[in-house]
UniProtKB/TrEMBL annotation:
Full protein name: beta-N-acetylhexosaminidase
SUPFAM superfamilies: (Trans)glycosidases, beta-N-acetylhexosaminidase-like domain
UniProt keyword list: Hydrolase
EC numbers, comma separated: 3.2.1.52
Organism this protein belongs to: Microbacterium horticulturae
Catalytic activity: Hydrolysis of terminal non-reducing N-acetyl-D-hexosamine residues in N-acetyl-beta-D-hexosaminides
Coiled-coil positions: none
Length: 503
């Protein structure tokens, strides 16, 4: 048995040889970038020591392109890797294994699959595998919870273990600003990531074949903090303010912020936000999203916006929109008004038309020829409580405060029954699914344990969906067997879902 995602085809052939001391010797001809990436990950996640070379390697990497269907969607990787296939093939050869792939990334994927199946013996695996989708991500809110750099690295390890390849960093929000922008010292929080921190994250992610896609969210969400350095159009509530590209200094700030992201990250895509800009006028919203898109394009990058960005009319074919508002989570103004304290009623009144408009975002994206990253709040928002959490005696207390109470809980396994292409707004508008991204919003997250409880096991199931559907019982068994890997990486507080960890 391998970990998750399960390969497209796997045939076990018994044991090939023992691996004394859990040492796996990979032939020296392998390129150093692969050995480096795998050695560190094997030690951190799999308790296996990978060494290069030796006279009788356990695994031989073969440079050979493996034929496989092209993955669906947008390629998130920086230019140098574009066109590389992640497909790989594992075969027993005598008492060792060969892994064939046409790229370092393919070899890396194959080795990770093998590590998930190794114990103190080398299994005789026959595997043929390739990802269904090119863009397989996690969006991480590092504003509501400022994860230290080493914790973000653990998240990157987790992505690499499960074959995910995008870490979308949500770097700005109402509560703060998570990175330093040169020339705007007053913007950043005290514990914001420095340029050196961002460089460290980028290098770490690159070494594990993960692309970091950074986001500065405009024109909503950010103004509370931006008011320190530029004029802000004020409202009756922090959520009802907005910045406007027409105001003095705003364009220069956008230049500096996106310029810094472009300087620190090689991602072909930069994210401009665009969601929930309740305080912006229609024109101000359009101006600001257009300015951000222009600035991103001028840096040779491609803009991504949350679905509401479609309303600015600034997204063009090849750009990406990110769908997040699931039908069942669309704001019901009557219900919401009844549920909130009086001082929030103005917010609901102002937000209601924008949420109503969200029903048309998908059609607008389709008409503009924009592909979609799918992060539908159902089932991809991991701050939704899993319904089986109510049965979880060990974590009962954590679930009292963890997760967004505004969302109806749903089963962790519901992810397995979801098909992005058949989601009504996507099917009805003939949208191209450019990728899928789970999202971890961190309003209720205090530490890495809380993050673990929300992330796992669901993120591993999302990874399976991104690589392709597989038999449900095998998927749940593989999820359960991943627990030691999560524990080693520091995610031991994962949710012990009864559907997976059967009592
Ligand atoms: C909506 S999704 C948000 C976030 C919240 C999240 C809570 C999106 C683009 N905006 O600011 O954290 O809901 O689930």
């Amino acid at each position: 048995m391998t970990g998750l995602p399960l390969p497209a085809r796997v045939v076990p052939h018994g044991t090939l040889r023992r691996l004394p001391g859990r040492v796996l010797r990979v032939d020296a001809a392998a390129r150093p970038e692969i050995i480096d990436a795998v050695t560190a990950l094997a030690a951190a996640a799999f308790d296996v020591t990978v060494t290069a070379g030796g006279a009788a390697p356990d695994v031989v990497l073969v440079d050979e392109r493996v034929e496989a269907p092209a993955p669906l969607g947008a390629d998130p990787r920086p230019g140098s890797r574009r066109g590389c296939s992640e497909a790989y093939r594992i075969r027993p050869a005598g008492d060792r294994l060969t892994i064939a792939a046409g790229s370092a990334e393919g070899h890396f994927r194959g080795l990770v699959t093998l590590l998930g199946a190794c114990s103190d013996v080398l299994p005789g695996l026959e595997v043929d595998d390739h990802p269904l989708r090119a863009w397989r991500g996690l969006s991480l809110d590092v504003v509501r919870r400022r994860f230290p750099v080493d914790e973000v690295c653990r998240v990157i390890d987790l992505l690499a273990v499960h074959g995910l390849n995008v870490l979308h960093l949500h770097l700005t929000d109402t509560q703060g600003w998570a990175f330093a922008v040169p020339g705007y010292a007053a913007l950043a929080d005290d514990d914001a990531y420095t340029a050196a921190d961002l460089d460290a994250l980028e290098a770490y992610a690159h070494g594990r074949f993960v692309t970091i896609v950074p986001e500065v969210d405009v024109p909503g969400h950010v103004p509370a903090r931006m008011a320190r350095v530029v004029p802000v159009r004020a409202g009756v509530h922090p959520f009802l303010t907005a910045i406007d590209a027409d105001d003095p200094g705003v364009e220069a700030l956008l230049q500096a912020a996106f310029g810094e992201l472009a300087a620190r990250f090689a991602s072909p895509h930069l994210h401009l936000g665009g969601d929930e800009a309740f305080g912006a006028s229609v024109e101000g919203f359009a101006r600001t999203v257009a300015a951000a898109s222009r600035i991103i394009r001028a840096r040779g990058r491609t803009p991504i916006g949350w679905q509401e960005a479609s309303r600015a009319g600034a997204l063009a074919p090849g750009d990406l929109g990110q769908l997040w508002i699931a039908d069942r989570d669309r704001l019901d103004p009557e219900k919401a008004t009844a549920a909130v304290p009086v001082e929030f009623r103005a917010l609901i009144a102002q937000a209601a038309p924008l949420f109503a408009e969200s029903a048309h975002d998908a059609a607008r994206l389709g008409a503009a020829g924009v592909g979609v990253i799918v992060s539908s709040s159902d089932p991809l928002y991991l701050d939704r409580r899993p319904s089986e959490a109510s049965l979880d005696a060990t974590q009962h207390e954590a679930w009292q405060r963890l997760g967004n109470p505004g969302y109806e809980p749903t089963s962790s396994l519901s992810i397995l029954d979801w098909h992005p292409e058949s989601q009504p707004d996507i099917a009805a508008n003939g949208l191209t699914v450019a990728g899928i991204e789970a999202a971890l919003w961190c309003e209720t997250v205090r530490d890495l344990d809380d993050a673990a409880t929300l992330l796992l096991p669901r993120l591993a199931l999302v990874a399976q969906k991104a690589w392709g559907d597989a038999d449900r019982d095998r998927v749940t068994a593989a999820a359960a067997s991943s627990a030691p890997v999560w524990e080693r990486l520091g995610f031991g507080a994962f949710h012990r879902s009864r559907d997976i960890f059967r009592p």
